[in-house]
Structure formats: C-alpha cells, structure tokens
Amino acid sequence: MNQDEILQKAKTWLTVTFDQSTQKEIKDLIDNKPSELMDRFYKDLEFGTGGMRGTMGAGTNRINKYTLGKNTQGLSNYLLEHSKKDQPKVVIAYDCRNNSELFAKEVANVFSANGIYTYLFESLRPTPELSFAVRELNCDVGIVLTASHNPPEYNGYKVYYDDGGQIVPPQDKAIVDEINSLKFSDIKFNGNEDLIEIIGEKVDEKFIEASVKNSTFASTKGRENLKIVFTPLHGTSITIIPQALKQAGFSDVHIVEEQREPNGNFPTVKSPNPEEPEALKMATELANKIGADILIGTDPDCDRLGIAVRNNENELVLLNGNQTFCILVSFLMKKWHEEGKINGKQFIGSTIVTTDLVKKIADHYGVETKTGLTGFKWIAKMIRDVEGVEDFIGGGEESFGFMVGDFVRDKDAVSSTLLACEIAAEAKSKGSTLYDELMNLYVDHGLYKEHLISVVKKGMEGAKEINQMMVNMRQNPLLEIDGEKVKTLNDYQKSTSKNFIKGTQSNIDLPKSDVLIYETENGTRIAARPSGTEPKIKFYFSVNTEVKNREEIASAEKRLDEKIKRIIKELSL
C-alpha cells in the first residue's frame, strides 16, 4: 500500500462505527505522527504460528477492541454455520496482561450477541487450562487473550478448536476468509448476559487432578525431599502451579515473592521470558541462598517454562528448550517402557527446527517420532489424526514448550513443571541429579549442541528486509558449511527437498511454511524462519558429535561451540 491508500484506510476509523476515544487517537496520528500511522495501517494483523499477536492501540495492525471484535464476529459466523450443536459453545480465558480482562469481556459480548453460549473464566488462568477446558466443557471453540512472553505493550488472541488444539487447516483458512469478508460495522458488540456463564474453581480442580495424574508416577520416591524454587514472573501460573505441586506431594516449594503478584507491566524483569537467564535472576538468587535442587520459571500465560539445575560444580545452569525436551520425553518413554505400555503404536511429537537427539532417544525405545512445522498446533493435529489408533506420549519444541500426554493439546508449563520435578526427585532419591540424566543421554545417544540467533526487523521496512533475506537464501543456496558439503536443502515454502550429493529432488508432505533448512553430510543443520508472532527472523544452528564417556563431554562441547561460532561468522550474522 502507498501512503495515500494507507491514509484513506485510516480515515475510515474516524466514522461512527468507532468510539470517540478511538477516533481521537487516529486523528492525532493523522495530524502529528504520520510514520506511526503508516505502521498501524499498512497491513492487517494475521494469524501466525501462535494465533494473532501484536502491540496494543488503534489501527488494523494493532490489537484493539475492533480487530478482536472482527475476528470474533467472523468466528461466530463460522460456528453458527458449521457447529453440530443446536447452540454452539465457546470458552474464554485471559492472562495477566494490561487490557486482557477487558478484551476477554468484549470477546464474550460478541459471541453472546450472536447467540453463542459463552463460558468466561472469573479471573486470569493459564493458557493450558483453556485448552483443557475446551474438551472438558464440550465446546466448539476456545479463546485465550494473551501475548505469551512478548513485552508489556503486546497482547494477542489464540483460537482453539473442539479438540483443544489451536486451529489448523482447513478450519483456519475458512475462518480467516469469513473474517476478511466482514466490515468493522458488522461486529455485534451488545452482549447477552443470559448466555455468559462465569466459571472457575470446578474447572481448576479437574485440571489440576488431570495434570498430576499425567505427570507423576507411583514408583517415584522423595518428592518431599526436593527443594524447589518457583517464579511465575508476574503471570498466571501462580493460580495453579503451587496448588498442583502440593497435590502431587512436593512440599518444599519456595516462591519468589517479588514476582508472585500478576502484573502486566512485569516490573521486576526487562522481559518475562523464561528462556532468558536475566528473567530468572531473582529466582536464581533465592535458589542459591537456600540451596535449591531445581529452579522453574514460567512465562505470563504459563505455557513455556525455563528450568535451571545444578551441574557437576554445584552451579545452577539454565537448560535450553532442546535439553529440557530430551530429558522430559526420555523419562516418559522410560516409564512407559517399565510399565509395559510400549507396543509399536506410540509416538512423540517434534518440529522441524527441534534437535534430532529426541528422535535418537525415541528410536532407542521403539517409539515413532512424528515431525511437523513449528508450533504446537501441528503436534495437536498429529494427535487428532491418529486418535484411537496410536498413543501420544509427549511432545515439544526448542522454544521451551512441552506437552505431557494429550489431556492438554498445547504446550503446558503446569504438567511440565510437575514432570521436571518428578524426574529431579527420582534422581535425587538415587543419588543423582537431573543434570546427570542429561549427561547420560549424551553418552548414550550423542552430544547435540543447538544455538538460536534472532534478528529483529520492526515495521513495514523490517518486514521487507526479512522477506528479502529469505529470497536471497533461496536464490543463492549455501553449498558448504564450515567446510562440510551441504547434503540437503529443504524448502518448506516450495515443499521441496533437494539432495545436492545425488542431484535429486523430492516433495515434502507438510503444509507450506516460509522455512529453509540446510543439512550437511556430517549432520550439521542450519534453519532460517521468519517468526509468525514477532518482527524477527530466526536462525537455528545444530551440530553434534559422539562422546564415549562423561569425561569427554566438556571438551566436545567446547569444540561444538567453536564450530557454531565459525558458522555464524561465515553467515555474517
């Protein structure tokens, strides 16, 4: 769009369809802030890998009453046409962010104004509980207002289908088409209170019960001896995790008091992202003060978690998402094996940018690894596609998310927290640690080292730059990485896999996605993927080597780190 087209688009927000405060905000942008006006209207927010997410404010490229209302109106129209129920049902949750409660009520009003029965949580709740509630309450759809681990100025809108998983093809396209066919004046904002039911404690109890059942095992000992430090980072997990830990038998739990209260401004951290060590600084200080065995922090909507454990020098180290995934899924498969539940009809779910170590571990137990695109909606789809035929053990990805069983169909920091503590307790009762368990996996299956670089490119120009970076990599493919010949290039946008060694090409049987993955003859991998929820492009690096014993790990890890640094320099990143 050119500047004149954007200006005309913005002026439509000065009509009676929009309230006075919105009109005032837009007029100020037109008169005084032309560059910001461009950014707010040059595109419409779209559903990405994690739903619709963006900064709050007036405009089509912002999260506000009207962009959320239009999505909800389109979704309402879709449900009224496609629901198998006489009266469709939805359930809505929201997190700790500024305006989340207000937005949740607006969304409930639109659904109820369209004659759809609406369950609304009484106060903030974890995202995984919303996924659970969809099936527990037999709903057609679930909505959660959240921006996950994004900065305070963000909010978002995730849509879950009747299986508790986020929407996927063909429903997603049909819903988006319905949304795009609407005008803002089509939104019905006048809610029907008779169709809105407030829910809370009863669903909480069932969710906690299911979480404990799926994440703990009768054979585990010593839960009461595990010293845990937990921080919700001002988010929703405070409503569920302490109670779930207590119910599971973990009694020595210490909460970071300064971060206990939910707060959308996240006053004690720069970013409420448990992937970042700085976000867990207060928790680390407390853990060192009291000599904790394990530290766990969750993001604002409680779907991601960061775990720190003690290494051989008794220092707390933050595990990355790949390491956590490997530890958790290995333990689950071990328990399934001990209980005689593995018979060739089980699988785990992973993604195209997640470590290959998980597949090595699964192969050891005779369990299939299904690999999908980035985002847990694809793992949920794996479960749905084979429901009743194959058993889902667990799934995860590199971005600090994990699923335990299929009772929640999205990444879930509640059950993952319980499972991590279960593993740590069992290890401690045997004189080991969770860190030791990871080292044992490296010796048994190979040492894998991953690294992620995110290049931020904000605004309209940034989006063009990211697109051009992907174009350049497609037009000028790498043929060598750190002296290793590139074996394959998988282009998920073109659905092609090129083998440069054999000179052949095959098709990729996955939905199209803007991702490129290079792999060398030695198993070195580089993936490039524009983020679906943030203004950035991500580069994933994976290298590996065999180690014969634990004494070799430190030196081997150093060599792999140096290798990754050479590759990054080679790519000028």
Automatic annotation (TrEMBL):
Q: Which SUPFAM superfamilies match?
A: Phosphoglucomutase, C-terminal domain, Phosphoglucomutase, first 3 domains
Gene3D superfamilies per the UniProt record, alphabetical: Alpha-D-Glucose-1,6-Bisphosphate, subunit A, domain 3 (3.40.120.10), Alpha-D-phosphohexomutase, C-terminal domain (3.30.310.50)
GO molecular function per UniProt: isomerase activity
User: Keywords in UniProt for this one?
Assistant: Isomerase, Magnesium, Metal-binding, Phosphoprotein
Question: What InterPro entries does the annotation carry?
Answer: A-D-PHexomutase_a/b/a-I, A-D-PHexomutase_a/b/a-I/II/III, A-D-PHexomutase_a/b/a-II, A-D-PHexomutase_a/b/a-III, A-D-PHexomutase_C, A-D-PHexomutase_C_sf, A-D-PHexomutase_CS, Alpha-D-phosphohexomutase_SF
Locate the Alpha-D-phosphohexomutase alpha/beta/alpha domain: which residues?
Answer: 46-184, 207-308, 320-442
Name it: Phospho-sugar mutase
Q: What is the lineage of its organism?
A: Bacteria, Pseudomonadati, Bacteroidota, Flavobacteriia, Flavobacteriales
